[in-house]
Amino acid sequence: MKVQDLTLEQKIGQLFVMGFPQEYPSEEFIRLVRKYQVGNVILFSHNISSAQQLSNLTKALFEEILEHTGVLPLISIDEEGGVVSRLPQDCAVMPSALAQSEAGDEEAVYQAARIAGEQLKALGINFNLAPVLDINSNKNNPVIGVRSFGETAEQVSRFAAMAVKGFLDAGILCSGKHFPGHGDTDKDSHLSLPVLNVDKELLVCRELAPFSELIHQGLPAVTIGHVIVPALESQQIPCTMSYNAVTGLLRKQMQFDGLIISDCMEMAAVKEYYGIAKGAVEGLKAGIDLIFISHTASAVEEAVLAVKKAVEDGELSMERIEDAAARVLAAKEMFGKCDWNMEKVGTKQQIQFAEGFLAKTIRPLDQTKEKKFLLGTDPLFIGIEPGSVTLASDTKGPQNFAIFMQQCFGGEAIECSMNTTEKEMQDCIDRAKGKSSLVVGTLNAHLQPGQCRLLEALSSLNIPLAHIALRNPYDLEKTSDEVFKLPLYEYTVRAMEKAKQYFI
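The structure corresponding to this sequence follows.
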């Protein structure tokens, strides 16, 4: 279908992506499709219980949207791997980006993306919101961390290129995120409005470098992050609403001709500071083609009506609407079809690869003298309560690390809160007396003063200590080189299962 064949309502409907809260399309979702021609979907973990259920769901979504809009939908998902994975347990789930790159196997990164993409395509999902092209230049970043391929532009570019190739070879649309870079920030845009305070020269040679390289290699879509960048925009607005960032830099200077999408407009960086409807209008004016409003039906309706009014009032040109709609239609023409083939989902070979790759990523740090840690007869296991450290990873951990290890090896287990209290720390110290060894699993301790104090206290006890980083490996810098150190990159049972081989 050509954009000229669409009504204004249909054109606007093609520019929005929406979600819903349960495992089936809500009444509000169906109403928005039928009344406003909204033509695209995003799915989260709360929409999914099994591969078969997901397949049935996407079939229903395709049929509903195609029947009432006349156009195939883009059905999107965040399947980065590791801590940001929406696929159910009966699928092959790949490790986090940082874990993948630390394993050092470029071919494995390609295969991981290809397998993930093939599964998504076979489940009726045609758009993966990955890979992350941000650089871990700020270890105190609360939202990126293990989602990034590394700490340098070269490392991120090299491994992300393999991921993009894998997704494209699987026939799935993918998007590099979060332009122009979310790595060197200290706030989570889900909760606040981060600022990337770097000069233009550093921005070009560091943050923009992976985007430039991947665009050169055929990256089909770019996600704009809700980040204020004073080097690009004098107004106090995020790049999602900045013409200078989206059209001036990305579209014109960097000559990107693909699909430009927003991060979710319900994130606090836009919702709390500007409003969702205003964000949608300003985002389209800036040059974004596809607006994500991922959770609230009323917010989608308000934004659609605001865009229509902006067109009717002359604030938003018909040319801009048609240009955006044409790019969306072009993406659907290239990537829209799916095959719903359950024989390509969670196969023995796929799962073996995923498990083998995960095992390859979990290994003691090179500085660790001993390759295995001797627990002794009476170990004490200390674990931080599982849970999400950012809304990007919206699933709860299945089991506390300490309880898991106790069930495997005996001994004693203590659960501590994320920002460990003085009382919890003292309890750990008291119960450590007379123990043969201490094993502590931390969860982004480098961002949590309470966990840092706990590590310091445990290190002073003169008891053999093993330190397990359950997410960001930067935690391991908080203990001395004499400590046995093991990064897991993700707080999951499957990662802990791979880790237990290093304890005897």
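DSSP finds 17 helices and 13 strands in the chain.
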